[in-house]
Automatic annotation (TrEMBL):
Residues 27-199 form the Helicase ATP-binding domain. It is an enzyme of class 5 (isomerase). It catalyses: Couples ATP hydrolysis with the unwinding of duplex DNA by translocating in the 3'-5' direction. Belongs to the helicase family. RecQ subfamily. Its cofactor is Mg(2+); Zn(2+). It comes from Pseudanabaena cinerea FACHB-1277. The lineage of its organism: Bacteria, Bacillati, Cyanobacteriota, Cyanophyceae, Pseudanabaenales. The chain holds residues 1 to 532 of 741 of the full protein. This is DNA helicase RecQ. One of its GO terms (cellular component) is cytoplasm.
Length: 532
């Protein structure tokens, strides 16, 4: 029976007794020559899905992988299992490259790892043709396949050319693997890789051992202290993600001064420094890696106990992926996102900088995508329902309401009745003819004498100045909450202009109550954490 021989092969080559959910079906499909798309969370066991078929088929399997570091690790691990594997990339000398090519043609190799840019050099394509004729090509495996999609969080233009492979080697089956793909990205992968009637496996993205929480940022010093406390209360290794290199250096330094073993990682360090810091962290010489998102892909440290995003993420997929580096060993771990509106502005600013390098014209499509993605992160961060449910819904999964392992499930935010204020706000949207954004609406409500208010004669409106009893921050919070709760519809580019919808009118007619979450009290700040 095939089932048994597969399990035997699994045991023989990798030493495992049984398949994890999905692996067998994926392997059977790909072994049978069918194009396959495997979507499994990080740590789900994707590698075996192409490695085992590679061992069981005649010919070599070409593995496309975006990171050189990742290739080396995988190849080393395979060799330790006595499996013929090699990699070809730009770091090799001509001589080494030749030796490896020879070994491949001698049939000593089952898996060849290559960087995508390598694939499209004519010389290499010629080499592949020779390989095909002499030893045969069993399949193509495209790791981190989401890189092919602009809708993913890590688009790499060189992946776009992978369809060329499909055209040149039409009869060779292809498997795409990724830990992250929304419905849209999934379709994009299928299309871009030109998969034919693929077998698609989508594993559940739920990571039950991860605790999700969001902490509002309140001023630089307060936020830092909260960060410090977060780290202090968790034993074991962790990652702190920041948006910029500068921030990474600052935070790493400050944590070190405060007695936490932290080191930086970002693209501004030399390759050697990066390598060294990574190794020290993996070996637990230091506790905390403070890094930009350049850090982490392909790093297999199972016992990461916390991942803190000290600055806001740019998109949910990235957040899921990065936070998912916690708890691969299945032990309880913590994923913390700091929500700061300043960061939001910074990201919006960066999005506005996305321009065509030649003409300087804004890249509108890209900007629109980026704004939508940012909106989704804010929806997650400001959400008052189960965080896990919000995340999983993003990946197209329905999750029951209470996970008992996120801040919103364990300590629901207290709610306050803000119906009257909501009615004032929505009426103001109506009176200004649904043509303005939150900032202007709040100016009108609070009776501002700003030029823009007077110019539009909005000081003449019945809603002018009826909101003086609430602060600017309170109105801002309400307007964001109205959007999140679906009482207002923003135009698609960011949060710009607010439009009314059916639900808005229900509120104005008094048919709906509007509740506003009140922030939980932050933990008391321990004075001695700073004043040593
Ligand atoms: P991914 O690429 O999906 O992040 P990996 O392929 O690196 O995941 O696998 C994650 C871990 O799970 C690895 O340590 C791998 O050896 C292990 N693993 C994979 N499949 C099995 C299995 N069937 N039984 C036990 N362990 C497995
Ligand atoms: Zn929950």
């Amino acid at each position: 029976m095939i089932a048994d021989s597969l399990t035997q092969a699994l045991k023989q080559y990798f030493g495992y007794d049984s398949f994890r959910a999905g692996q067998r079906e994926i392997i059977e499909a790909f072994l049978g020559g069918r194009d396959t798309l495997a979507i499994m969370p990080t740590g789900g066991g994707k590698s075996i899905c192409f490695q085992l078929p590679a061992l069981l088929k005649t010919g070599v399997t070409i593995v496309v992988s975006p990171l050189i570091a990742l290739m080396q690790d995988q190849v080393t691990a395979l060799k330790e299992n006595g499996i013929g594997a090699t990699f070809l990339n730009s770091t090799l000398s001509g001589r080494e490259s030749n030796q490896r090519s020879q070994a491949i043609l001698n049939g000593a190799v089952k898996l060849i790892y290559v960087a995508p840019e390598r694939l499209f050099n004519e010389q290499f394509l010629e080499f592949l043709n020779i390989v095909k004729n002499q030893v045969g090509i069993a399949g193509f495996a495209i790791d981190e396949a989401h890189c092919v999609s602009e809708w993913g969080h890590d688009f790499r233009p060189e992946y776009r050319q992978l369809s060329r492979i499909r055209n040149s080697f039409a009869d060779v089956p292809m498997i795409g693997l990724t830990a992250t793909a929304t419905e849209r990205v999934r379709e994009d992968i299928s299309q871009q890789l030109a998969l034919r009637d693929p077998y698609i496996h989508v594993a559940s993205f739920d990571r039950a051992n991860l605790y999700y929480e969001v902490i509002p940022k309140q001023g630089a010093d307060q936020s830092y202290i909260h960060l410090y406390q977060q780290i202090k209360k968790t034993q074991g290794a962790g990652i702190v993600y920041c948006l910029s290199r500068k921030r990474v250096d600052e935070i790493a330094e400050r944590l070190r001064i405060d007695g936490i073993e932290a080191i930086p990682y970002h693209a501004g360090l030399t390759p050697r420094e990066r390598e060294e810091n990574q190794t020290r962290w993996i070996r637990d010489d230091v506790q905390v890696m403070v890094a930009t998102i350049a850090f982490g892909m392909g790093i297999n440290k199972p016992d990461v106990r916390f991942v803190i995003h000290y600055d806001l993420s740019k998109n949910i997929e990235g957040y899921y992926q990065e936070s998912g580096r916690a708890g691969r060993d299945g032990e309880d771990s913590r994923c913390t996102l700091f929500l700061g509106y300043q960061d939001l502005e910074t990201i919006k600013y960066l999005i506005a900088q996305k321009v065509d390098p030649h003409t300087n014209a804004p890249l509108e499509a890209e900007q629109r995508i980026a704004h939508q993605q940012l909106r989704q992160v804010v929806d997650y961060a400001e959400g008052i329902t189960c965080r896990r449910a919000i995340l999983l819904r993003y990946f197209g999964e329905n999750f029951h309401d209470n996970c008992r392992n996120c801040d919103n499930c364990l300590t629901p935010k207290p709610m306050e009745d803000w119906t009257v204020e909501a009615q004032k706000f929505l009426s103001c949207v109506a009176r200004t003819k649904e043509r303005f954004g939150a900032a202007h609406l709040i100016d009108v409500l609070r009776g501002s004498r700003k030029e823009k208010v007077l110019q539009h004669h909005h000081d003449q409106l019945s809603t002018y100045g009826i909101g003086k009893d609430r602060s600017l921050d309170e109105w801002r919070q309400l307007s964001r909450s109205l959007v999140h709760q679906g009482y207002l519809t923003p135009t698609t580019d960011g949060y710009a202009i607010l439009k009314l919808n059916d639900r808005s009118w229900e509120v104005m007619r008094g048919q709906r109550q509007v509740l506003l979450p009140i922030e939980r009290d932050a933990e008391p700040v321990v004075a001695d954490s700073r004043d040593r």
